[in-house]
Amino acid sequence: MSSFLLYGANGYTGELIARLAVQKGLTPILAGRNPQKIAPLATELGLEYCTFTLEDTAAVDEALADVPVVLNCAGPFSQTAKPLVAGCLRKKTHYLDITGEVAVFEAIASQTSLAQTAEVMLLPGVGFDVVPSDCLAAHLKTRLPNATQLTLAFQALGKISRGTAITMVEAQGKGGLVRRNGVLTFVPAAWKTRTIDFGNGAVTAVTIPWGDVSTAFYSTGIPNIEVYAAFPTPVRIGMVATRYLGGLLSLPPVQNLQKRLIQNQLPGPSEIERTQGASILWGEVTDDAGKTATSRLQCPEGYTLTTVTAVEVVSRVLAGRFHPGFQTPSLVYGADFILDFDGVVREDLN
Question: Is the pTM of this model over 0.90?
Answer without folding.
Answer: yes
